[in-house]
Amino acid sequence: MASYAIFDEKYYLSQYPWVKPAIDAGVIKSGLEHFQKFGEAGGLTKVSRYFDEATYLAGNPDIAALVRTPNNPNAPFATGLDHFIQYGYEEGRTRVSAEYDEAFYLANNRQLQPFIQNGTFKNGYQHFIQFGLKDGQFGTSFFETEYLQKNPDVRPFVESGALKTGREHYFNFGSSDPSRSATFIGSSGNDIIAGAGVGNTELIGVEVGLGTGNGFAEGRVYESDGSNEFDTLTGGSGRDIFVLADLTEGGKSSPPGTRRFYIGPGLATIRNFIKGQDSILLANGFLPFSDQYLILPINNNRDLAIQYNASLSAVPGTAPFDTIAVIEGGGNLKLNLLPESRATRFSLG
Q: Which of 59, 92, 220, 266 could, after both became Cys, cross-link 229 (CB 3.0–4.6 A)?
C-alpha cells in the first residue's frame, strides 16, 4: 500500500511553484493531489527535505534496474521515490538522504527501541518523519538547530526551500567560509564524530540539545555526560575545538552550571589534533589547574592523556586520577591557556 507520509506540502510547492496557481484556480485541491495524479508518474521527486532521489538509488542499488530510463522505458517505477512510496517506506529502507542518519537518530532516541520491536515503527526514520521533525529533532550529528540560531541569514533560505537544511548550507557554502562555525555532536552511546570546515568547528561526543524552560535562558542542554561513553573525535582541516566540558546557560532539563564530561568510566579519543591550531575545552574550577588535572604522555610517549582528579567528583569507584581523554600522537605537547568565556580553552604546543 502506498504511503505518502514523507510528503511535505510546503516544500513541494516551493520546489514546483507552478503548481500553486492551479490550486488557487481550483483545478486541484493541493500539492499532494497534484503529486498523486501527475507528479509521481511524471518523475517529480522533490517532495521532502529528507528524501533525495540520488541518495536513495545509490544506497539501494537493487532499485536502479527497476526505475524507468530512456534505455529501460518499461521498468515498473517512474523514479526511486515512486518505489519508496509504493514499497520502500514500509520495507523500512532508511538510506534516503544525506540529511538523515538512522544510526545517529536511534542512538539519540533510545526510547524508540520497544516501539520498533513491537512494530509500531519500522525504523527511526518513520518516527522522525511523523513526530521527530515536529518536535525540533534533527537527523544527523550536525547541530542543526544551533547552526540556524547562530546564522539567522541562512534561515530564510531554508524556510523558502532554496536549501533543505542548515546542514546543506554548511557543507555547500559555510564549510569554506572562515567566519562560519559549526558543531557536531554525539549521543549517550559510543560515537565517532568528525569535523569539517575551515572555520571553528566544535566536536562534542555527548548528547546535546537546544531548549528553554524552567526559567532558564535558551541554551545547550547536555543530555548525557560521557559516563560509560567511549567516543572518537576526529579533527578536520580547520580550527577544531574538542569539548570535554562546558558551561550550560540552562535549558529545558538542565540549570546553568559547569558540565564535565567522561568522569568515571568512559573517555574521548582525540585524533588529528593540529598543534597551534586546535584547542581543548576543559572546566577549570577554583583550585589550581595542577590540583585538578594531570597532563602526561602515555604509550611510550606517543600519546597524551588528560586526567581529572577524581577526589573532586562524586563518582564512586573512580581511579585517583581518571583519564577523560587521550590525544593520539600528542605525547610531546604541552597545554597553553587561551582566553575563553566558556569553561576554559587550551591550545597544545
A: 266
Query: Cα separation of 292 and 306, whole Å?
Result: 10
Q: Which three cell numbers stand for residue 47?
A: 517532495
Among residues 213, 59, 196, the alpha carbon closest in space to that of 141 is found at 196
CB 235 within 8 Å of CB 273: yes
> Whole-angstrom Cα distance, residue 308 to residue 301?
19
- Distances from the Cα of 327 to the Cαs of 215, 293, 331, in angstroms? 38, 15, 8
C-alpha cell at 127: 518516527
Q: How far apart are CA 226 and CA 262, in angstroms?
A: 4
- pLDDT tens per residue, range 54-89: 999 999 999 999 999 999 999 999 999 999 999 999
Classify the C-alpha dihedral 296-299-301-302 as positive or negative.
negative
For residue 285, give the C-alpha cell. 574550577
Task: For residue 16, give the nearest of 161, 157, 164, 163 by alpha carbon.
Answer: 161
Nearest to 51 by CA among 17, 79, 29: 79
Reported pTM: 0.91
Residues 6+ apart with CB under 8 A from 249: 216, 217, 218, 219, 220, 256
Nearest to 7 by CA among 139, 132, 138, 130: 130
Residues 223 and 248 sit within 8 Å (Cβ to Cβ): no
Which of 108, 107, 167, 164 has its CA nearest to residue 142?
Answer: 167
